[in-house]
Hints:
Strand content: under 5%
Number of domains: 1
Shape: elongated
CATH class: Mainly Alpha
Number of strands: 0
Structural class: mainly alpha
CATH topology: MetI-like fold
CATH architecture: Orthogonal Bundle
Amino acid sequence: MSISVEQTASKPLSSPATTDWVPRKQVGLWSDAWRRLKRSRNAQVGMAIMLLFVLMGVFIPLVDPYNPRIDSDLVNRLKAPSAEHWFGTDEQGRDLFRRVLHGANISLRVGIAAVALALILGCFIGLIAGFFGGLTDNVAMRAMDIMLSFPATLLAIGIVATRGPGLDNTMLAIGIVNIPRYARLARSTTLSIKEQDYVMAAHATGVKPRRIIWRHVFPNSLSPIIVQSTLSIATAIIEAAALGFLGLGAQPPTPEWGAMLSDGYKYLTIGAWWVLLYPGLAIMLTVLGFNLLGDGLRDALDPRLRVD
């Protein structure tokens, strides 16, 4: 049985499958990183812990003004935790719960200020050394090698001992000690980024080196620097606690967690375990929060894990 040409032409042609195709929305690096960061359980726990201590550090001094010099109550010294004093009291009869809460402000301030100082100076040195190379690179990196040849804690102790104990000198010492870490990181990323085509094109069109560094090189090197900053805050808090324990950090009666450990460890032999437990737990939880957040950021900003 034959089929006429008119019958064949009258049959509608089937629509190609491509008519239903919808182009995928392009996801930027930072949007994709934020999406994966929200899905990370470790990052969620880290952000929750960090947010808790940040809120404590910001709002507790506002809602509960505290003067440790007039809070002593020798009648109630070294009292165990109770309904009246949740964390017990210290050797001066001061409420440990209040001191731990107010210590969050000091420890976070030390960690953030020290890391900010190290980040600004270290990134500046690393960007300049990596971008220009030659003698500038050699001089800068040899200076960083000399600083790295000293143990970090020992170098911080030397700086604080030279300038005198105190909170400001503690922040300065920890910041200086961490400069080589950021300088090397910024230099390594700069060395790879400056070989990219868009940087070479900027050179070819006559863009000034300063503009290339701040408009092209620095923004594209932020991912590892952000991760390192988050992890370094935890390290800075530990270093500040170590200096406080040695009596070189915040001076009594300032409620700094390391200084509280230094003042209270001698009473452990008489059974006053709470004097050490709660400041130590505060340090541990804060460091844990920043470390978990740093691990989550490292995974979220890893370009090898990015979903296009």
